[in-house]
Amino acid sequence: MSQSLVVAGMAGGQVAELVITGDLAHPARLTVPDLLIWPQYEAQVAFECATSGIQRHRFTGPLLHDVLQDAGPAFDPVRRKDRLRFLIAVRGADGHHALLSWAEIDPDFGRAPVLLSVTLDDTPLDRVGPQLVLPQDRCGARHISGIDAIRVDGGYPAMTGAW
Q: What pTM value is reported for the model?
């Protein structure tokens, strides 16, 4: 996210809202201040941006896994591996999208420390919305600025029979 976008968002005076929907027991509407109730993590990140080269930033925020786990994904409790069929679609206010699998962020599988960042280089993101941060990605394409929607989708049944 560019510093100019942060400054422009701060000038607007309105607090951005993130809507979390999908196969969840507790869909939610959250703001950056709401995201402060979860434990906060810090990530020093360097990633390659196609338009401006290497970017280096410091982000803080809760783990995406923690926030989505509180929303109550509709996993089948009898089948431990049921989590593996769930996808997470993230959309930014600018229309940028990214897709992750639940397995990437789940502590029993990939355990990727994906953040819903509430600050960028110590600047609060209240007015522009949280940012998806994937510290493990070399390319910054999945870093989504100003997230306005996350959908958790488990609508992919197990495949049976021949393909």
A: 0.87
